TrEMBL record:
It catalyses: IMP + L-aspartate + GTP = N(6)-(1,2-dicarboxyethyl)-AMP + GDP + phosphate + 2 H(+). PROSITE patterns: ADENYLOSUCCIN_SYN_1, ADENYLOSUCCIN_SYN_2. GO terms for molecular function: adenylosuccinate synthase activity; GTP binding; magnesium ion binding. The lineage of its organism: Bacteria, Bacillati, Cyanobacteriota, Cyanophyceae, Oculatellales. HAMAP family: Adenylosucc_synth. This is Adenylosuccinate synthetase. GTP binds at residues 12-18, 40-42, 304, 330-332, 412-414. It comes from Pegethrix bostrychoides GSE-TBD4-15B. Mg(2+) binds at residues 13, 40. GO terms for cellular component: cytoplasm.
């Protein structure tokens, strides 16, 4: 049995969808534990592209149970569109379960997200405008609507009447927007409730039962470490906890149930939205990375900002998430380059700085210190083992592993499942990978925990 958390180690869009889909072959259950329809996870299987916002990437395996956990926020309209799209492609969604305690994104959340971004002017966050922040804010304020509320029409009617009237005051008085018709909102959401009802369960209990049956569970993070509300580059963050610790809270499992944590990082860095980005390349190099990496947002279509790999952020992600290993994606995007830069430290007020500063102002002033490595200038798209890689590409990976003091277990060289090198089975292999022989593994438990139920990863 191995329960594994997959997280983004940068600012999101690292390729978590591809890696989760790949690892789902060894999983009996996949759980999304935070975020909402701000996420866009792309999975490419046999030339067909799936863009998932809320439904876990494990859905493409017919026998894998998929759970949208308690820590997520659910926009039922978008979720139903996603269900319809999968149905149209004959992908079964029977195994999809939705937490009864997940919070629901309402029309006023989307309107407030959009209006507050406009009001912020130069201080805007660059949100996806999907109502994520306002939904989580209501959850904290204890005025949120949960999936369980949607399941009870009579009390929902009363609850929504009060809430919509209350939010109308905010829309009208604070943002000069027209009020919503409470009855129209009630009717719309009662309709969604009936469609989603068969999927709504006590998800923490289902996960607990699966754990007791020693089934393999994958916890799929959305967004990334630097977008974490507590540990990211605040205030330019999302409103949930994408870090590995968020999996316990968002899924409703104890930390003792997690066996492994896998970080996903691109071979370079991207960011969508506002906020400091020390290694950003506002030049031809940034454009080249955007073109070769097709760096346009899955959810909003916005251009992603592009830059070099940032080892300070990488080390931070290893620390904050307790990473056991990394999956490095999009190595192929660097194929053409004669030279590649990696940020190994920052220069902050004339001092060399190896750790991410906690202050937003200090982070904005960090200047990257680069190490230049030779490129390989040949295609890696067809490489299927470390031996197939050009020497310079292998050196690049070894450099990253040493810089971050974490093994690299997976290397991805293209969007499809087969464009992958499994250096070491990250779920069932030893807690020590080949590329970096870590002297002091973070995990304290022995190998016995992971020896049962070995299922090879087939791509
Ligand atoms: P996520 O949000 O972390 O799941 O990542 P996204 O799906 O938003 O963005 C990653 C993009 O890169 C998607 O379009 C993937 O299909 C694509 N992708 C994933 N891995 C690779 C890779 O190794 N090489 C290339 N060229 N594309 C990849
Ligand atoms: P996946 O799961 C990249 C960014 C937004 C914005 C900030 C806050 O595909 O990696 P929000 O709408 O969450 O309040 O926006 O977070 N953001 C993402 N960036 N990938 C994502 O998800 C993101 N989800 C939110 O661009 O900067
Ligand atoms: Mg994405």
């Amino acid at each position: 049995m191995a329960n594994v958390v997959v997280i983004g180690a940068q600012w999101g869009d690292e390729g978590k969808g591809k890696i989760t889909d790949l690892l789902s072959n060894s999983a009996d259950m996949v759980v999304r534990y935070q975020g909402g329809v701000n996420a866009g996870h792309t999975v490419v299987v046999k030339g067909q592209t799936f863009k998932l916002h809320l439904i876990p990437s494990g859905i493409l395996y017919p026998s894998t149970e998929c759970i949208i956990g308690s820590g997520t926020v659910i926009d039922p309209k978008v979720l139903i569109q996603e269900l319809d799209q999968l149905d149209a492609l004959h992908i079964s969604t029977e195994n999809l379960l939705i937490s009864s305690t997940a919070h629901v994104t309402m029309p006023y959340h989307r309107l407030i997200d959009q209006a507050s971004e406009e009001r912020r002017g130069d201080h805007k966050i660059g949100t996806t405008k999907r109502g994520i922040g306002p939904t989580y804010a209501d959850k904290s304020e204890r005025t949120g609507i949960r999936m369980i509320d949607l399941m009870e029409p009579e009390s929902l009617r009363k609850l929504l009447h009060w809430t919509v009237t209350h939010k109308n005051a905010v829309l009208e008085k604070l943002y000069d927007l027209p009020p919503l018709d409470p009855e129209a909102v009630i009717q719309e959401y009662l309709g969604y409730a009936e469609r989603l009802r068969p999927h709504v369960v006590d998800s923490s209990l289902r996960i607990h039962e699966a754990i007791r049956q020693r089934r393999n569970i994958l916890f799929e993070g959305a967004q990334g470490t630097l977008l974490d509300l507590d540990h990211g580059t605040y205030p330019y963050v999302t409103s949930s906890n994408p870090v590995a610790g968020g999996a316990c809270v968002g899924a409703g499992v104890g930390p003792t149930m997690i066996d492994r944590v896998i970080g996903v990082a691109k071979a370079y860095t991207t960011r969508v939205g506002e906020g400091p980005f020390p290694t950003e390349q506002l030049n031809e190099m940034g454009e080249l990375l955007r073109d070769r990496g097709a760096e346009f947002g899955t959810t909003t279509g916005r251009e992603r900002r592009c830059g070099w790999f940032d080892g300070v952020i990488g080390r931070y992600a290893v620390r904050i998430n307790g990473l056991d290993c990394l999956a490095i994606t999009k190595l192929d995007v660097l194929d053409e380059l004669a030279e590649i830069q990696v940020c190994v430290a920052y220069d902050l007020d004339g001092e060399r700085c190896h750790e991410l500063p906690t202050g937003a102002r200090q982070f904005a002033q960090c200047r990257p210190v680069y190490k230049t490595l030779p490129g390989w200038q040949q295609s890696t798209a067809d490489c299927r083992s470390l031996e197939d890689l050009p020497a310079a590409a292998l050196n690049y990976l070894k450099f990253l592993a040493e810089l971050m003091e974490v093994p690299i277990a997976i290397v991805s060289l293209g969007a499809s499942r087969d464009q992958t090198i499994i250096v070491e089975d990250p779920i069932h292999g030893p807690k020590r990978a080949l590329l970096y022989d870590r002297a002091q593994p973070i995990g304290l438990r022995g190998e016995a925990t992971h020896s049962a139920a070995i299922r090879a990863i087939e791509v």
